Amino acid sequence: MDYQALANLLFPNVTETPEAVEARFPSRNAPEGAVITRMAPSPTGFVHLGNLVQGLTSERMAHQSGGVLFLRIEDTDAKREVAGAVEVLINTLKHYGIAFDEGATVDGDMGAYGPYRQRQRAAIYHVFAKKLVSEGHAYPCFCTEEELSAMREKQEANKETTGYYGSYAIWRDRSLEDVKAQLEKGMPWVLRFRSTGSIENQFKFDDLVKGQLTITENNVDHVLLKSDGIPTYHFAHAVDDHLMHTTHVVRGDEWLPSLPFHIQLFKTLGFKLPKYVHIGPLMKMDGNSKRKLSKRKDPELALTFYKAEGFPVEAVYEYLMTLLNSNYEDWRRANPTAPSDSFKFSPKKLNPAGNLFDYAKLTDVSKNEIAKMDAEKAYSLLTEWAAEFDPDFAQKLTADKDYAVSILAIGRGGKKPRKDLATWKEAKPYMGFFYDAYLETPVFDPKFSAQTVCSVLTKFLDRYDPADDSAQWFDKVKAITQEIGFTTDMKAYKADPAAYPGTVADVSTFIRQAVTGKTNSPDLYTVMQILGAERSRARIQAVIDQL
Questions:
Q1: Alpha carbon distances (Å) from 54 to 43, 57, 281, 321, 394
Q2: What is d(CA 437, CA 428) in angstroms, rounded to the nearest whole number?
Q3: Would 166 be classed as within a structural domain?
Q4: Which end of the chain has fewer CB atoms at under 10 Å, N or C?
Q5: Could you read off the pLDDT of 276-305 as tens digits, one per residue?
Q6: How far apart are CA 157 and CA 155, in angstroms?
Q7: How many whole angstroms separate alpha carbon 410 and alpha carbon 515?
Q8: Within a domain: 73
Q9: How far apart, in Å, are the Cα atoms of 151 and each of 171, 197, 227, 274?
Q10: Confidence of residue 245 (pLDDT cuts 50, 70, 90)
């Protein structure tokens, strides 16, 4: 076979050489040991937690080594592409603090190694495809879908490995005349890799997460270019990672079965193989067993879920860091105020088997993160969330910023700040009663008569003085307690509950419910100070009138 003649026949319009292409993508001016890596998602419109885990791993490895993180859009599968997906992807990752140094942007490209969308790089792939054909490493295949299906059925019936290999690779050694005849008929073709591997052979390979792996050689003649001339992921990523000088590839371990072919492809093309970081899946408990998080079953897989629930970015980031590196929690305890990017991240500390996603732990981390914020920051993030997900609440928050900030300031600061909120979605149930429109009608414990509740509220109104400090305020509550025959001695009540009709806690609850509509709220004295004397009185009087 004259492979050069075959290459010219298949790619008559490709005149550029691989050397000329490589000259357009010179070596990067990066420090010794710098990690050059990428996120390379498909634009399917679904951005999930796994994307963020890979993005965070890539970002930490690149930026703490003085390297580069770039975004490449792998849009070679036109059937899966969703309109607007690239914008969704970029904006979502940006929201979670994944900052790209170069790559695809919403309206184009940024950087010297583009284009960063694979469909725009078709001409580049054809140069390297022609090289492979001219060296005898690739050939055209004219098999129809029907022929391939029949082949697969036969392999399954014979309990053989499925794929295009060995005696099934019917176009592998066809003559130039056979190829010409098909081309003259206008028959569609794909370009296949001519594998020289054997499944009898194995070799060792070091993965930065999985450790040393035993790899079986690839013997399948995989497709490099589809019939529309667009490459498969396998071929495109090899060419792109070479030209963009990628040093590390971070991806999910579902790609491990393709690794033998990728190693073979890099070697055949004469490219230096990047280091691979294969990340295990995110899992959850389902009954007593673990399973992978599923797009179909688990809303928490989608990144949009966390934004809509109102988890602060810092909380999601902190939680994922505890998943990615087991020593992060100890480091955080020792460095409670240090920026997270001062932590020395290592891909070798990733769990090879994947991580168990724990929603309850994320909630705890989020409570801590929100508790650490000052009231101004909490206000800023809450209003940003509410503007998108609860516009009516946002309008009330922004109508009087100082008022809203004073509410959020309750219990903040100090060594033990309150941990009332895990998400911004919980803010309205927590603080909504400060706004008359959200005030609920209180429902008092039926074991106390309306007359008793009325008596407490009337006595309280008679003595209420907004100038009182919290101790004076509570002294008045205790005095009312004793006047109505309830006890202020909680120990005595616990010892003999039947001896008393109620306690100071019940009296406080009557006032709390009249003012807030709820049995639980932040410190009631502080609440009434923020509401002001007039509104506090009006609310209590309204409940008396109603009773």
A1: 16, 5, 10, 12, 34
A2: 11
A3: yes
A4: N
A5: 999 999 999 888 999 999 888 899 998 889
A6: 5
A7: 16
A8: no
A9: 13, 21, 19, 35
A10: very high
CA distance 218 to 205: 14
Distance, first Cα to last Cα, the chain: 100
Q: ω before 257 within 30° of 0 (cis)?
A: no
Burial class (CB in 10 A: 0-12, 13-18, 19+), 516: buried
Instruction: Report yes or no: 278 and 207 within 8 Å, Cβ to Cβ.
Output: yes
- Asked if the structure places residue 184 within a domain, the reply is yes
Could you tell me the CATH number of the domain that includes residue 342? 1.10.1160.10
DSSP assignment of 180-228 equals: HHHHHTT---EEEE-----TT-EEEEEETTTEEEEEEPP----EEE-TT
Q: Two tokens at 438?
A: 């959200």
Residue 140 structure tokens? 């055209």
Residue 101 has pLDDT above 90, yes or no: yes
Spatial separation of the C-alpha atoms in residues 294 and 224, rounded to whole Å: 30
pTM: 0.87
Q: For residue 92, is pLDDT > 90?
A: no
> Looking at residue 42, what is its pLDDT?
85
